Amino acid sequence: MDQLVWMFSLLPDSIFVMLTYAIFAAGLLLYIASKLVRWIPIMMQYRMPAELVGVLLLCVGAYFFGWRGNEEKWLAKIKELEEKVQIAEARSREVNTVIETKFVTKIKVVKETVYANREIIREVAGAQLDSQCSLPKSSIVLHDSASRNEVARGAESVDGTPSDIKASQLLETVVDNYGACHENAEKLKAWQEWYRAQKQIFESVAK
Asked: Which of 26, 38, 135, 138 is the most exposed, fewest CB within 10 Å of its CB?
């Protein structure tokens, strides 16, 4: 039966509806006729086949009506879901724009802060620091090892002789590293905000 319905469903919608009504009407007429021919002796031999065919056509027609009703419900649900998805996609693009704008603004502030601090070091604090402080080699080794998440080992890690690196240079590196850390933090916050927003938007489609 499902294969038969599927074959008929390939027809244009208007023809499928007309065919369904025709099958149901033919079955109803045959069934009624099978009840009337009992008063016509010459037609009595056709009463049983007419009744069987009529009942069969009535069942087929009723099945077609039921199938079409269910199909229309599913098509309506699909259309409703498509509309919800389109709305969700539009909201998603709006949220992406808002989050991206906010992220770019925050990253700009971080970069401007790093630049301002580097200028202070170069113009004022750097000269004062270099005149009052010299860095031993061990401090550079320890800094570099920490940046690689390693434990400093070897004689250089305890070497107290002065290094060629100025204290202002080390301070600039620290400022840059802090800036990079704040940039990564803002990226993480942006990703978390994006995920929460997108999750909320597209979960609303299923409701």
From this structure: 38
Prediction pTM value: 0.59
Last residue of a domain, one of 53, 82, 111: 82
pLDDT of residue 4: 52
CA angle, residues 159, 167, 136, in degrees to nearest 5 = 10
Query: 126 and 73 share a domain?
Result: no
Helix (H, G, I), strand (E, B) or coil at 136: strand
Q: What is the pLDDT of residues 120-132, one digit of tens each?
A: 888 877 788 878 8
CA angle 15, 19, 25 (to 5 degrees): 145
Rounded CA-CA distance 171/175 in Å is: 6
Q: Are residues 105 and 16 located together in one domain of the fold?
A: no
The stretch 67-87 carries a mean pLDDT of: 74
Q: How far is CA 149 from the centre of its chain?
A: 36
Residues in the chain: 207
